[in-house]
Design brief:
Blueprint lengths: L1 H10 L3 H12 L4 H8 L5 H40 L18 H15 L3 E2 L5 E3 H4 L10 H5 L16 E3 L5 H10 L3 E10 L10 E11 L4 H15 L7 E8 L2 E14 L2 E4 L4 E11 L1 H6 L8 E8 H9 L12 H6 L5
Parallel strand pairs: 1-4
Antiparallel strand pairs: 2-3, 4-5, 5-10, 6-7, 7-8, 7-9, 9-10
Bound molecules: phenylalanine.
Catalytic activity: tRNA(Phe) + L-phenylalanine + ATP = L-phenylalanyl-tRNA(Phe) + AMP + diphosphate + H(+)
Pfam families: Phe_tRNA-synt_N, tRNA-synt_2d
Keywords: Aminoacyl-tRNA synthetase, ATP-binding, Cytoplasm, Ligase, Magnesium, Metal-binding, Nucleotide-binding, Protein biosynthesis
Length: 342
């Protein structure tokens, strides 16, 4: 019996075969169990010999089964390892990864620099009422600035009595919305898309601005100048960039200034922060009392500065890009050339 089963176990091809052998040998109705039952008919002397022998046989078969089972599992694993191997030295399949658009990258840079200066980000809708875009900013209906801005008006049916909406022509309406929402004091920037009907090498109908607004008890133009010089030095990675303030006019600031940064041209190449040339980069001024009022802030208690600058424009300056329109062509060769895409 022992030889028969140990032989069968050794020859078992897989776990199923092994289980069949186990049932036949040491299962409840197996051959060993049957022999055990016969013990009852034996004489005590016979039983004393046969009992331990059968138990030993059962143990031996069980341990042979366990050993074979382990050997089969090992063999199965070996077989899998032989067929399912991976060559980890093979080059990986290339995966194309998207990158942020240069305007988004520059917006993030700008946001990070102003965050260090204590400015948080505020946002407003790109489609806004003409009240937020114009009236609240001290640009009444007849004002020439409305015509100058080449505004896109939303079409309205004659019986539609909702207030007129426009594609915002600048980020300045976010000044009003944030004053209404948060009150004074404020220290915010508002980056985002704006729209004007204009198209040439330096104008696209959609472009991006970042508005800045600081309101407190004793904010002055000196604070404005310091903040801007800190910003441009960080943005262009040049210590101590100089700015030049030129008197200007905006309906929503008084006084108003256009701001230039120091630059020069060397061999037809623009160098920011060097030499004695100037490049206009933004409009700014002290927030007009009427604008504070429109935003629900008392101009007797509070004052502040505001500025608005073209994000695409400073991106062009930083990366030496001659044509604004290229930003919005989605030409991968162009994006790669300037290192904006992989
Ligand atoms: N909104 C102005 C523009 O688009 C820029 C500006 C913002 C000027 C804030 C002064 C203060 O040209």
């Amino acid at each position: 019996l022992k030889a028969k089963y140990l032989g069968q176990i050794a020859g078992a091809a897989d776990e199923n075969a092994l289980e069949t052998i186990r049932l036949a040998a040491v299962g409840k109705k197996g051959e060993v169990a049957l022999k055990m039952r016969e013990l009852g008919k034996m004489t005590p002397e016979e039983r004393q010999v046969a009992g331990p022998a059968l138990n030993a046989l059962k143990d031996e078969i069980n341990s042979a089964l366990a050993a074979k089972k382990a050997a089969l599992a090992d063999a199965a694993l070996d077989a899998r390892l032989r067929t399912e191997w991976l060559d980890v030295t093979l080059p990986s399949r290339t995966r194309r990864q998207g990158t942020l658009h240069p305007v988004s990258q520059v917006t993030e840079e700008v946001t990070a620099i102003f965050a260090e200066l204590g400015f948080s980000v505020a946002e407003g809708p790109r489609i806004d009422t003409d009240w937020y875009n114009f009236d609240a900013l001290n640009i009444p209906g007849h004002h020439p600035a409305r015509a100058e801005m080449d505004t896109f008006y939303m079409h309205r049916a004659p019986d539609d009595d909702r207030p007129p909406h426009v594609l915002r022509t600048h980020t300045s309406p976010v000044q009003i919305r944030t004053m209404e929402k948060r009150g004074a004091p404020l220290r915010i920037i508002c980056p985002g898309g704006v729209y004007r009907a204009d198209y040439d090498q330096t104008h696209t109908p959609m472009f991006h601005q970042v508005e800045g607004l600081a309101i407190d008890k004793d904010i002055s133009m000196a604070n404005l100048k310091w903040v801007l010089e800190e910003f441009f030095s960080a943005f262009f990675e040049i210590n101590g960039i100089k700015t030049r303030f030129r008197a200007s006019h905006f309906p929503f600031t008084e006084p108003s200034a256009e701001v230039d940064i120091q630059c020069s041209w060397v061999d037809g190449q623009l160098r920011i922060g060097e030499g004695d040339g100037w490049m206009e980069v933004l409009g700014s001024g002290m927030v007009h009392p009427k604008v504070l009022q429109a935003g629900g802030i008392d101009p007797n208690d509070w004052q502040g500065f505001a500025f608005g600058m073209g994000i695409d424009r400073i991106a062009m300056l930083k990366y030496g890009i001659p044509d604004l329109r290229a930003f919005f062509d989605s030409d991968l060769r162009w994006l790669r050339h300037y290192g904006f895409a992989a």
